[in-house]
Amino acid sequence: MVSPQRTQLRSLDNLISMERKMLRHGLARPDMTAQELREFTKTIRAHLNLPALVLPPTRPLITLISRARSPNTKNASKPRRYIINEADIAHKLRFDTSLDVQLVNLETLSIKEQITLMGRTSVLFGVHSSALLHVAWMRPGSAVVQLHLPNTQLGSHAHVQRDGILSWYSGVHPSIIMNIENLAEKAGVRYFDCWPNKTVGASKKVSECSSKKTLSMPCLSVVQQEEIIFRETDSIIVDSEHVADLISKLAALV
What we know:
Blueprint: H1 12-16, H2 20-25, H3 34-47, E1 61-65, E2 82-83, H4 86-96, E3 100-104, H5 111-120, E4 123-127, E5 143-147, H6 157-162, H7 164-169, H8 174-177, H9 180-187, E6 190-194, E7 198-200, H10 203-210, H11 222-232, E8 235-237, H12 240-251
Parallel strand pairs: 1-3, 1-4, 2-8, 4-5, 5-6
Antiparallel strand pairs: 7-8
Domain Glycosyltransferase 61 catalytic: 31-145
Keywords: Glycoprotein, Glycosyltransferase, Transferase
Organism: Cymbomonas tetramitiformis
């Protein structure tokens, strides 16, 4: 097994791959229990010499996950599902509230820094992606807001229940179907959905898929159409006032 102290781990995927036992766990498994999740997070924290108990911050911490590419990441010129006006959300929260707000690209943090940040986070906001698996490290009673792309409900109970068998057994990539809502439920984290005002990049391919008279591999089902939206959306615009208002209300409850 690779020692975490000697490895520059940058993502949860890399950390899980460190040990076959962890790899088999599967944070997105629909039948995962709360006890399994507690044992998993306890094991990871022990590997990284992190404290098992994380004390809440003196004032609520809002963490906004940025998908803007830093110069040191791969495909720096091609961000996907990037919220164009993410800075507006952060600015409004800082200006209108006394909350501690961080807009952060998780790829710039080590895995230890990511876990520590999530343990302190009161409300987490981000677009559906593997980054939201970090709800596993959040304190019970905290909250996560998952931003969906239009015409999708990826990462929620609604998505998995609608096409459960196809989702889990047809070879759809795990990042598409991972149920963040289920993970939040097991972690004792409050879960909320929201949708953007506008997206750029995917509409043409979806319309091409919808217009086909016969089924093909890229257009097999609604799941595949959602995957196209997920993969091809370049940027997103949200109602920053609405999102900031939702987050501030949630912060008052945690």
